[in-house]
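Quick log. Single chain, no ligands specified.
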Amino acid sequence: MRINILVSLSILFVTYILFSAYVFYNEGYGLNTIGLFSICILIISLIVLYLQEKTFLSFNIIFLSMIYIFHLGHIILILIGNTRILGYDQRFYTTEYYYLRAVIYSIHIYFWISFGMIINNLKNKVAQVTFRNVSHKTLFRTGLILTIIGMVPRFYIDFSKVILYLQGNYNETRNFVTSGLLVILAKVFYIGLLTLMISLNKKKPFAITIMLGIITYNVIYMITGSRGESVIVILLFFFSYYTIIDELKVKKLVLLAIFGYFLLGVLSFIAETRNMLDRDLDIMLQTFIKYLTSESPILRVLAELGVTIKTVFYSIEFIPGAKGHTFGLNYLESLIVILPNISGFIYDKIQDLTFIYIFP
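-> predicted structure:
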């Protein structure tokens, strides 16, 4: 197995060298060729990590997959010629020169992150989660207390947003303002339930009931148009369940793939309908069926998430012109956000640290 890993790693490195040479020596490089290199690097990286970690449900694989989708997802759509990208095509916001530089830069960063993960796995044994020194009773009690603490704030915030949505649309929910303390306590609710689920790792029926309950609750809550946090919560519980409590076998993988496709359709449907004022049931149903059949939700999600490449080409285009390089200082300065927000000082500092605010 170690030989297979080393061979795959060598192929990955050679692919990256060929990509670098192609970009360096060829002034007329094209987006399609660069895109093919990026997909090769993606696939080989994931294969090597799978050989090392024996599972696709690892932090490294999920993280690498997500950063590729967010920064290079449009490349896949461009290669297959899918017109769905046109509604999200970021090439209209910059020149070809800056767009290509952003893509090339993203591929370089992607390779070195994946290479670092692979080398780290070679040097260190992949950690396995165990509970030999953990009291399940303590975990259960802790989870129960946290769930009770966060329950009322969680339901208050969620139901308030549902009411605002039903009275108007998604924009109404974005104007919802409440105490920062309540928001923090509401997040404790999910931490408590996650702890409860983990404490029941030897009682799978109870653990899976918690996971399915959370997934159902968040899918229903997404009718308000708020998708981001709910998707993160669903992925967190799913990832925790199948890495700590149960093993993800082929049969379950097929069922989860079907559910994942359905969920992507829901996400696309919500994006399209959340600002509608006329919620005619027939129109809503036709729209939902459209996003499950005639328009692939997978391609739509690639188009929607891939817009993150904009931050890369804007950074290349406007820094250091609009703002000087910080050389990593913003990572240290960001530690001040743990301080009390007296007179709005923290908010102003966050605005300054968030470099995307300087873009036109």
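The chain is about 70% helix and 0% strand.
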